[in-house]
């Protein structure tokens, strides 16, 4: 019993040692927040975008694909990560394709 406990602890320490030894540490390039739309007394997306410009936060993860929420962030230096459900991915890809195609078509 004691031998099993000792071996288990030794293997854990060996695993931790190798994990720390061979892992690559990368510096963090910025700090961000998660932005949700569920709640009471929430400020408008425009106010949130304005507020975040005066903070050191440079990344925002948004759990919404509503253009009214995304648009206020369009002319800011804030990086957006947009989380979309599986049912929205195809429509977002098609919309981006058609927007790109219409721009290319007008250039001729």
Automatic annotation (TrEMBL):
For biological process, the GO terms are: carbohydrate metabolic process
Q: Which Pfam families match?
A: Glyco_hydro_17 (PF00332)
Kindly report, in one word, the top-level EC class recorded for this enzyme: hydrolase
InterPro entries for the chain: GH, Glyco_hydro_17, Glyco_hydro_17_plant
**Domain of life assignment:** Eukaryota
Keywords, A to Z, come to: Glycosidase, Hydrolase, Signal
Which reaction is the catalytic activity of this chain?
Hydrolysis of (1->3)-beta-D-glucosidic linkages in (1->3)-beta-D-glucans
MF terms in GO = glucan endo-1,3-beta-D-glucosidase activity
Mind telling me which Gene3D superfamilies this protein's record contains? Glycosidases
Q: Which range is the signal sequence, renumbered to this chain?
A: 1-30
Quote the protein name from its UniProt record.
glucan endo-1,3-beta-D-glucosidase
Q: Which organism does this record belong to?
A: Rubroshorea leprosula
């Amino acid at each position: 019993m004691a031998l099993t406990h000792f071996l288990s602890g030794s293997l854990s320490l060996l695993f931790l040692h190798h994990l720390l030894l061979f892992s690559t540490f990368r510096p963090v390039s910025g700090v961000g927040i998660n932005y949700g739309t569920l709640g009471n007394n929430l400020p408008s997306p425009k106010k949130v975008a304005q507020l975040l410009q005066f903070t050191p936060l440079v990344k925002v993860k948004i759990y919404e694909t509503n253009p009214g929420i995304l648009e206020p962030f369009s002319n800011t230096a804030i990086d957006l990560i947009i989380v979309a459900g599986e049912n929205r991915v195809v429509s977002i890809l098609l919309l981006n394709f058609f927007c790109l195609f219409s721009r290319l078509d007008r250039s001729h």
